[in-house]
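Notebook, bench 3.
Goal today: get a predicted structure for Putative c6 transcription factor from Diaporthe ampelina so we can plan the truncation constructs. The sequence was checked against the plasmid map this morning, with no discrepancies at the termini. Length recorded as 542 residues. Pasting the sequence as submitted so the record is complete.
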Amino acid sequence: MIAGLGSPGEEESSHIVGPVVTSDTQILADYLRADPHRGAGRKLARIMRPGRDGGAAAAAAAATAAAAATATAGPDNSVMFARVRRRPMGQTPNQTVASGKCHIIERIIEPFADELIDTYFRKANACFPLLDEGSFRDQYRRRPSHISSALLASVYAHALTFWSQPRRAAGRHCPDSRFVWNQATDALYSELQLCPGMSTVVAVLLDVGGRPSTSMIGNGVLIGSAVSIAHGLGLHRDPGGWDMSEPEKRIRVQIWWALVVHDRWYSLAYGTPPHIQGKFHDVPRPRADAGGNAVFLALVSLSEVLDAFLVHIYALKSDRRATSEFDPGAALSQWEESLTGDNRWLILQGGDLSIPGASNLRLAYLFVRLLQRRIELDNTRDQGQRADTYTLSDRYTHPRRAAEGIVRLVQALRAPQLNDFWLPTAAFIFTSTIAFLLRVALETEKTASGLVESTSLSLANDLLVALKSHQQNFRWDLGDVCIAQYADVVEELRKATPVANVGQGGTETSVPLIDWQDFGVSGLADVEDLFPNLWDMFDSNH
């Protein structure tokens, strides 16, 4: 098993030493190590520099078996780890809550546990790699009790979505995924409280990446906790020159970037600034491998583009925004030009969506493009451009076309794509897209009949129709929030009738912009009805 991902009975864990005291600790460790009598029985720091002979490093490790692992990324950029107690004083290694919850799940999913593991690696890990498949399978086969209970429970729950969709569509019985998720989340919180480690970070990523996603606050807490643990474990530092196996280096890099991806997209979905700051980590992007991780690499790089957008979106000082040189169009165009091969065709033209993870990647790109157009639109407003009917409609053309791309993609999805890998934040993409389309319809149309016949309102309805079809025919959950929020709203707007703006001849008069009070739209007592509680239709803790 990759170090840090198993052995729940481990008493100690590595924790990074802050840069303020790293050089002091390094000098002290070198001094104590020079004299075995002085260093005997002490938890020394093993100093290793990139380029040293592996045999010498191994000999040094044997001489200081109790030492913590230390690595150096450069002469003035040392990274040092200290050995710390993994669980609170008085707590035993027997994780009764986490292991008990995992056993409950295993009883529920019998005899399909092995099938779920296969499904996870085929559907999820292939698109969003968090685990080394060979190492995990070997440990699962030989000593499953040495795998973190929270991690194993989260793998089962995460895989259940992919496994159960086709079975339910075929009318076959499946375990209650909501109940399974609740057990897995309980196991995760137990490990988070008692003995957090790298396995906890992976379990968090599986949990927040699971579907259906129904707890904004819970997911936000988990992501913040995972970022904190990851920093403590040094996952934010480049392990390239460290004394560890290549698979372990690779999985550390993948876990870090998976965390970055979730942090960025949940920041956008939940309206909260991202936890991870680009200037505080130096982890290189994952490398391409023979396993075909091109989709994951593209999602990682796209999330970096999104980060530039988030910096602009969440900036609070108006003078900083006014003088900002950030150009969203240039940022996205530069990324588009960096694409090559099949990825370029897939992302820009909507090519082969049968590739695992392709539909999610295409949707993510289309939404970043819509976000770019929305930022440009808001910038023109800030610059005080005239808001007459012509210029307003003209300015909305490109953003509306970007939104239309999302609608057409959803309409084109079929069973293989719907049962593929999706980030749960896709649910936010749909609600945000419809909200924007309704905004366009309301701001560009002057009359009730114009509103009813508007292209934007028609696109919003098309998106809802497609999502309802996927929900009914394939039990696809990612449209549930959008349907619950906007189905009635769109239906009422399509039936809007003028009340106040009627001329003496019985015809509608032209008005500069629609006023909600001018329309008799039953069921919409307040414009706030357009924005109900995002998750209030659910009552699960997951």
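The CA atoms of residues 232 and 444 lie 51 Å apart. Strands lie at 12-17, 45-46, 68-72, 78-85.
Flagging this for group meeting.
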